[in-house]
Amino acid sequence: MGLFKMSDGETFAFSADIQQLMGLIINTFYSNKEIFLREIISNASDALDKIRYKSITHPEELESEPKLFIKIIPDKSNNTLTIWDSGIGMSKTDLVNNLGTIARSGTKQFVEAIAAGADISMIGQFGVGFYSAFLVADKVQVISKRNEDDQYVWESTAGGTFSVVKDETNERIPRGTKVVLYLKEDQLEFLEERKLKDIIKKHSEFIGFPIELLVEKTEEKEVTESEDETKKEEKKDEEKKDEEKKDEEKKNDEDAKIEDCLLYTSDAAD
To answer: What does 132-189 look like in DSSP terms, one character per residue?
Structure first.
């Protein structure tokens, strides 16, 4: 495992098998890219199962976040898609070992299966479904918090290395994981509400936890003719009041000048 220190954390080299897998994912043309969401939701469900199972003997484990959920959050302003679960979360060691440096036995088997003509959609069966995120993203962040550890950020642009940094900038997660995908320019369809709903319905039928899709709503109010006329009348009334106010101020100024003039005349006469 290659490792070198950085000012803001540590950078690690992916294991050779995982580098080969990443190269395959990035460079192979594959039309059914939507499987990435199935795989990340499946991982989120596994993390929720783990915390639920652990809470049977250690109920205090759920105190940090009692609700068990998966949330899908598209952000069109930043071209990101976030999959957030309130599962068991990952420690710094988990992030380093599980996402890059220690290859699972299935990694090499999957690469060999692909070389033999297998479909890339089988990636989850080999335990390496997380890396399918790079089918649609050119950068991936994993923000995670385990009960007994600090919050950390794993990040990679698939260039052979990844970094793990103690998180000092992002919103605090009580417990769980956020996978943030910075989508490629030609994959922005995965921010669309209808597309996401269809994929979730298609691939997540047997997920035993609630999946929430957060969508942006823009409210447009239709102005009727009567409302428009009312606004015009209100504007006319305001303009009339302004004119009356100006006339009143002008009259007061003239009255004051006349009074000054009379006082001056009276003084002069004396």
So the answer is: GGGGTEEEEEEEEE-TTS-EEEEEE-SSSEEEEEE-SSSPP-SSEEEEEEEE-GGGGG
Model pTM? 0.77
Cα separation values, 239 from 68, 235, 236, 253, 262, Å:
58, 6, 5, 21, 35
What is the separation of C-alpha 123 from the centre of its chain, rounded to a whole number of angstroms?
25
Render pLDDT for 56-71 as a digit per residue (tens, 0 to 9).
999 999 999 999 999 9
* Dist. CA 23–CA 17, nearest whole Å: 10
**For residues 86 and 190, is the Cβ–Cβ distance under 8 A?**
no
Phi first, then psi: what are they for 24, rounded to 5°? -65, -45
Which ranges constitute the DSSP H helices of the chain? Answer: 16-27, 35-57, 92-96, 105-115, 193-203, 225-269
How many Å apart are CA 250 and CA 242, to the nearest integer? 12
Any idea what DSSP says for residue 102? Answer: S
Query: What's the pLDDT tens digit per position in 237-258?
Result: 777 667 766 666 665 655 554 4
Give every CB contact of residue 149 below 8 A, 6+ residues apart in sequence.
89, 91, 92
Q: Which residues are within 8 A (CB) of 39 and not within 5 positions of it... i.e. 6 or more apart?
A: 123, 124, 129, 130, 132, 133
